[in-house]
Amino acid sequence: MAGMSPLFRRKADPADPRDRLVTLVRKPGCHLCDDAQAVIEKVCGELGVPWEGKDITEDRALHDQYWEQIPVVLIDGEQHTFWRVNEERLRRALTD
Q1: Which of 18, 50, 63, 71 is the most buried (most CB within 10 A)?
Q2: pTM for this prediction
Q3: In the predicted model, what is the mean pLDDT of residues 27-36?
Q4: In the beta sheet, which residues pair with residue 74?
């Protein structure tokens, strides 16, 4: 569903975390990115939330927008946090 055109994706139900999408914008060899991914895998796994990773070195627009902030976490395309991911804050954002 993550690669599907927004025209065909069903509307997200904010009450159901499984209808959310978390995106981790990262780069290879980044230890903060590895830490962020571990938190995302844990929280999203527990809540059943899909997540995806995007490599900043393969996407010029992401590079230009987020280079100085990586890792960056987006929820449904909106920036949630950068540099360090707080497990409880991410969980609240996905369930509130």
Answers
A1: 71
A2: 0.82
A3: 97
A4: 23, 79
